[in-house]
Amino acid sequence: MPSGIEGDDQKSRSFIERARREQILHAAIDTIAEVGLARASLARIAAHAGISAGLISYHFAGRDDLIAHVVRSVNEGMDQALTERMEAAEDYQGVLRALITGFVRYCADHRTEMYALREIDVATRSEVNEGRATAGREQLTGGITELLREGIREGEFRDFSVRVLALMLTAALEAVPQELYSHPETDADAYADELATAFVLAVRSTQPEENS
């Protein structure tokens, strides 16, 4: 019996700790979106969460560790949502459309989180962090590049400069969070469909399909 009670206590503590960490992460996201990364001190984040700064230090190794967890949390949620949409597509044009519309709509549903992520990215583009920021952009561009190359190989996309189109799409996606956060009246569905249509029309093959 005592061991069972101890087990229940451990589960309760684990649940409470997870809930507290989530509370701190949300407070950090809100604070960064409101005042920017530079002004998002642990004290300010703690005040937003209604807790002491010392409690944040109990759950995270420091401010840098907290920011890293914010980035990881937002990216993991976004990656999961986009993967589900893209895997449901039937062809490469569908995958491309799913990527673009899924990203815009995810940004619309998570405006504060995505704007905070953008603020972190912009603020860390210093000489010290430029390599990390560049690596992140290259990873996104690299994924788009591979998608476009596969579409060309399968004959769904026309022959074009993959690098140029990948960079154009990367830039277009990077502009979405600020647009939606700064202009909440924006029709996200129309934005998503228009952006996706523009890129699908830009890359799709113009060759007529053979009659079966």
TrEMBL record:
Keywords: DNA-binding. One of its GO terms (molecular function) is DNA-binding transcription factor activity. The keyword DNA-binding applies. It holds the Pfam family TetR_N. This is Fatty acid metabolism regulator protein.
